[in-house]
């Protein structure tokens, strides 16, 4: 009987031999655009600075890019920095059933290895999609117990998907692909104790670096135990007490977990998103926010519980305040990273609106639903019902909405038409002979940096 | 939502221990000897045309430049683990030798760092040791990374907050699987713990942050990987009683 790793590699390798189905390729392109946006949006974060500084101190080679920046580092540190930035702020994609954020780590592998492996656009998109699919399949096979216990599933399963992406970029045969994922199994990374610190987004970065390391070891003949997933003392049973290998290896080519990937429109917890949708819906109908007397949000009870901060004092606290999200939506008519900058959060206009806002929890309201009612001083009222929040499975982000998000992330870093150029490049990826255009767009323009 | 603990007596004790003035002559003597033996084993590893050279070539694929200290620590750790039974001290020795050489640290500084790292790792292992723990993880890599990181924090003279962050970055990636024992990969896992400790230390040095209670927090190292946790095994008599003196 073939081992779990062998069957897993066989399923993935077969999928890699033919073009991605159109609907899968489409979702992969959306996922790629989204994560390029988030990794560039966060490229100037002090955590990325620390990663680049550590690389400099080690004197590593300057071979691979860091999206959004001018520096080059080696593939290891490129993977760390890219995966970190992609997942920072939890603004990347989410596979709701496992809560894996699959794209940041896999895009980091692509970024780190593109200079060495020079894939065509179609090869790159396939390696990206199958790396996402692989880690999501591992994730569902050990969910929900694995995450509930405290493992950060984005890193622990991400490392397997990253080994797959690296192996496909290197052009491995099926047996070497099996070795790459088997070696990666003992390089799991991520404990949830680190949530709220830079170490959380470090997990997908390290998953990427480890996945590359595992593939390089496999390429040179290193071997893990053949039954590393299913054996006692192996990956799956050490990391979860409930394991279903059918979820990992069943229905390859028929069931695509990647299709259940979702994209967040706003850089805060998903629980606050319906309320922000409501705020944005009314923002265009209310000319002067100073005319507002009260705002009432009838919402799911989790909103006050998880997102109930009435007057956040900085950007981090604001990420746990649905009330701030609504106030920012009404004032700025958009909710992106700028609305969570420390200085934006403490300005008088949003403070005043937050003070006028009431959360009215109602158990009959769904988690992705909200009723918002705004009353003006002159007695007039505006109401809106959000049935399903943007970015939920029932109401996925449209391509235009996704581009609105990516524009707010990319253009401030790379110039005014960067997101539009990215969209064109990703749309034409199937025909692209290489990724040069993609990475030259993603690499920072020095003059703009000094502006 | 999980609100991580803001403080940890276990972390405080380990971080304080990493920086103490070393008074115990026996502990230092044994560490100096361990470093010397490790250097000898490393020096002879490539000579015989045996697995040592193969391992070096294998792992040098991980970096693009010949003297990358992170990759060198990996090679040294894997080499040591290949040539003698690995213990939680193995990643510590590999990490302090690789980093000590890069920093041109004195033999005394390297030995002192090894002393605290080996002792810290031995105590953390005592706190979590059980049949279930040994049945799941590569003990040398999963625990050794913590001692190696504390040793490197001393070698780099990191302040207490940075040492705490370094320990957190290390704890979150404690890894290695028991199933690979007996495979050549086990030595590579153990060496990787030394490489990861170097990375954790340098990231913290340059401002990276991590969990305050990375060892004993509700979603931390012990909660996820251990089946018992005896904090006193780490904190009791730290600096006056040396449990690692009973080890090889």
Please specify the SSE layout and strand pairing.
The complex is a heterodimer of chains A (451) and B (248).
Chain A: H1 4-16, H2 22-41, H3 46-58, E1 64-65, E2 72-73, H4 75-87, E3 93-95, H5 103-117, H6 121-141, H7 145-149, H8 153-156, H9 158-170, H10 174-184, H11 199-219, H12 235-239, H13 245-249, E4 261-263, H14 273-283, E5 292-299, H15 302-307, H16 315-318, H17 322-332, H18 342-345, H19 348-355, E6 357-361, E7 370-376, E8 381-386, H20 399-414, H21 418-427, H22 436-442, H23 446-450
Chain B: H1 9-18, H2 25-45, H3 51-60, H4 69-83, H5 89-103, H6 107-128, H7 131-136, H8 139-155, H9 160-171, H10 185-205, H11 221-225, H12 231-235
Helix pairs in contact in B: 1-9, 2-4, 2-6, 3-4, 4-5, 4-10, 5-6, 5-8, 5-10, 6-8, 8-9, 8-10, 9-10
Overall description:
The complex is a heterodimer of chains A (451) and B (248). With 451 residues, chain A is of the alpha+beta class. Chain A contains 23 helices and 8 strands. In chain A, the strands form 3 sheets. Chain A has a 4-stranded mixed sheet. Chain A has a two-stranded antiparallel ribbon with strand order 1-2. The N and C termini of chain A lie far apart (62 Å). Chain B has 248 residues and is mostly helical. Chain B is built from 12 helices and no strands. In chain B, α8 (139-155) runs antiparallel to α9 (160-171) and α8 runs parallel beside α10 (185-205). Chain B is globular. Classes of the chains: A alpha+beta (451), B mainly alpha (248). At the A-B interface, α3 and α11 of A face α9, α10 and α11 of B.
